[in-house]
Amino acid sequence: HLTSTSILELDEVPRHLAILGGGPVGLEFAQMFARFGAAVTIVELGSHLLDREDPDVSEELRSILEDEGVTVWTDAETRRVEDLQSGGARLVVDTPDGRAELVASHLLVAAGRIPNSDLLDLDKAGVDTDDQGYILVDDRCRTVVPGIWALGDVTGSPPFTHIAYDDYRVVAADVLPGREPRSRSGRQLPYCIYTDPELGRVGLTEREAEEQGRTIQVAKLPMSSWARAIEMGETRGFVKCLVDPEDEDIVGVAALGVHGGEIMSVLQTAMMGGLPYTAIRDGIYAHPTLAESLQNLFATVSDDA
Q: Three-state SS string across 183-225, please?
């Protein structure tokens, strides 16, 4: 089978690429290889792709992928994988319509990774891990052993380069003289999924807000209503923001569209500064930038959650 590392070493386009997992890695490679000309099937155990996202985000991205020829199976549990003498693999999958078989020339396993902390002999140093093998640390990346810090993916942080880099800044502030202390507590955790269009995300989803019992209002605008996106011919997707109706703070962003990561970052900066959404709605932005349509986005605020 292939991983997110070894698939980059292929010297041929798969005839049919099966992908186990409908998370960021699976979707990025699915679209890429579909555009290279491969038949691609995603097999996802959950009810929708990107299980951390709201259903509207997931379904929009699924529609985009399917329009490009990617086949998506959800609620699909892989029961068995068999090597074929002729090469490739046969997957036996339980689906809502019954048991099915999928024959593929290549198989990408994109169902997540586990920490390799078991190679570190941590018990000899007295460093604790949880039942999944992640090293236990406090908000300053300190383990239970004085003088030993841990950072990045092995601590269970979201597995993104920029989050690991912020962990480094937390540790550096703790161990280098003359630096102000930093903490992982309460920090924003933005991320981008680099499909086309890309998805930029920061803050709460509607589901998370509901689980927390928060009252929110929703602003949502399709990219077909963004003047710059129309000019670029990039009208797939939408931008959705969640706002607190009492203090008018922005509490969540999902930007699925052209330069979605950049749109998200503008709104994240407003979140960092505690800027109310009304300041953006009533601001003046240069025409025809993507930021200009943030005014139109926040004019759609409604109590949908």
A: CCCCCCCCEEECCCCEEEEEECCHHHHHHCCCCCEEEEEEHHH
Q: What does the alpha-carbon distance between residue 15 and residue 70 come to, in Å, rounded to a whole number?
A: 13
Tokens (6 digits) for 168: 């480094």
Instruction: Report whether 250 contacts 242 (CB < 8 A).
Output: yes
Q: Which one from 16, 48, 106, 287 is the annotated catalytic residue?
A: 287
- Cα distances from 237 to residues 28, 198, 240, in angstroms, run 16, 9, 10
Give me Rg for the CA atoms of the chain. Answer: 22
The string of pLDDT tens digits covering residues 84-116 is 988 899 999 999 999 999 999 999 999 988 999
Sequence-ordered list of residues with C-beta below 8 angstroms from that of 301, at least 6 positions apart, any chain: 217, 218, 219, 243, 277, 281
Cross-strand pairs, 107: 18
**Active-site residue, 162 included:** no
In the predicted model, what is the mean pLDDT of the chain?
A: 95
Nearest residue to 112 via CA among 190, 195, 23: 23
pLDDT lower than 70: segments of the chain:
303-305
**Tokens at residue 104, please?**
């593929």
Which of 88, 93, 58 is CA-nearest to residue 73? Answer: 93
* Residue 290 near residue 225 (C-beta atoms within 8 A): no
The tokens describing 282, both together, are 């009533």
Rounded-to-integer distance, Cα 24 and Cα 26, Å:
6
Find where tokens 């086309």 sit: 196
> Among 269, 261, 270, which residue's Cα sits nearest to residue 290?
261
Per DSSP, 237 falls in state: S
pLDDT more than 90, % of the chain: 95
User: Residue 38's closest CA among 73, 14, 67?
Assistant: 14
